[in-house]
Specification:
With 399 residues, the protein is mainly β. Helix content is 6%, strand content 42%.
Length: 399
């Protein structure tokens, strides 16, 4: 396929959705409203994982699926939305959100559809992230195409290049747009990392894939095409600092304890998280490191002295390389859950104890993200007075 000849919508959607088509077609053969047989996962390790169900991109379009700690689907419910659901996430306000078709949707605790969320103006709603604050404010990523004369930027650049840009939009709880930040206005096209060919007809200029609130009320975003994490003043839109690995053009920080084969820092990252102690946790795809490998990594950040120190990481043995997708989540009990994205090892997720020993591992399925939440867990209490066999099954399992 010559992607240069496909229009913007086709290029954008094709790059991020065709990877799901093959596994969806295969797994749909096994999907039924009352269960999935055989289960699509292989459980490689099971050693006291954290409580809660796993939210994994559904096996069949139009269904929400919850998976238990044995890798078995325990809750399957049809949801009337167009296309396959991806990026299922529990928000700080306890709404469950996911992306399908062209927008995000929200479910309540009974998995009932209660709202839809999309960008305002002439922007496509980007599926990578949605943040709803405890106060009800909504942050979305928008995507649009801008025609740029790249011949004035780089040698052999196209005079009418299709540059894919992002906006960050914040809405109040009544869905009034109260803040907008445009990547084209704040990033230079020459900030893009070296593995992007600026002479192509079409390319992405930022690829924003995460938004998180900081403790001071400002926001931090992840720009994959820049290998950069950027902190933005929510009142003025000014950039407060820029943090990135060796290939980042505008990194302001010194990395401590995070150099391998001459490459320091992260590359082509996903899933930015701010932990309660102020540390940052992210999924490092590692696309342009000296030796390609993916990992989860945690940093402490000294914003005053512009130093960032690696305090924890997990890198599988042997190395695994995820070209795209993936996420990482620190769980309430201290465990860490990692979704490995698109990789040749067929590894879906790994949950780790604090000492990096494996609590759970799943194989043989691709998912954009995997999250674990103790969200409406099925429970049943039985008073046992004598030895015997007891049935703890619950009728909640299938609706």
């Amino acid at each position: 396929i010559d992607f240069k000849k496909i229009n913007f919508i086709g290029v954008y959607k094709m790059r991020y959705f065709t990877k799901y088509i093959l596994c969806t077609l295969i797994l749909t053969l096994f999907a039924e409203m009352k269960g999935i047989d055989p289960p699509p996962f292989t459980v490689g390790t099971l050693d006291n994982p954290a409580p809660g169900y796993l939210f994994i991109d559904p096996y069949s379009p139009g269904y929400i699926n919850l998976v238990d700690n044995s890798g078995q689907p325990v809750y399957i419910k049809p949801i009337d939305v167009p296309g396959k659901m991806i990026n299922i996430k529990l928000q700080p306000n306890d709404m469950l959100t996911f992306f399908a078709g062209t927008k995000f949707y929200a479910l309540d605790k009974n998995y009932s559809l209660i709202d839809s969320l999309s960008c305002s103006g002439n922007y496509f709603t980007d599926f990578h992230d949605l943040l709803i604050t405890p106060e009800g404010n909504i942050f979305l990523i928008g995507t649009y195409m801008k025609i740029v004369d790249m011949s004035s930027v780089v040698k052999d650049g196209k005079t009418n290049a299709n540059v894919i840009c992002n906006v960050i939009q914040e809405f109040d709880k009544n869905k009034n747009l109260i803040f907008q930040w445009n990547t084209f206005d704040h990033y230079k096209l020459t900030d893009i990392v070296s593995d992007v060919d600026l002479t192509m007809q079409s390319f992405e200029s930022a690829h924003i894939n995460s938004i998180i609130p900081d403790s001071d009320g400002n926001i931090i975003i992840s720009a994959r095409a820049l290998d950069e994490i950027t902190k933005i003043n929510i009142h003025t839109g000014d950039i407060m600092w820029r943090l990135g690995g060796k290939d980042c053009k505008n990194n302001q920080f010194q990395f401590i304890g995070d150099t391998v084969d001459g490459y320091w820092g992260f590359a082509q990252q996903h899933s930015l998280n701010k932990l309660p102690d102020g540390n940052i946790l992210l999924y490092d795809n590692g696309n342009i490191t000296t030796k390609h490998y993916s990992r989860a990594v945690e940093y402490s950040i000294d914003e005053k002295n512009y130093k960032v120190t690696k305090v924890w990481e997990y890198r599988p043995t042997p190395d695994l390389f995820s070209t795209s997708m993936g996420n990482v989540q620190r769980l309430p009990n201290g465990n860490t859950l990692i979704c490995w994205g698109m990789n040749d090892s067929q590894l879906l997720m790994t949950e780790l104890h604090p000492d990096n020993s494996k609590a759970m591992e799943l194989h043989n399925y691709y998912s954009f993200t995997v999250y674990r939440f103790p969200f409406k867990m099925a429970t049943k209490e039985i008073f046992v007075k004598s030895p015997g066999n007891f049935d703890f099954d619950d009728t909640l399992n299938h609706i």
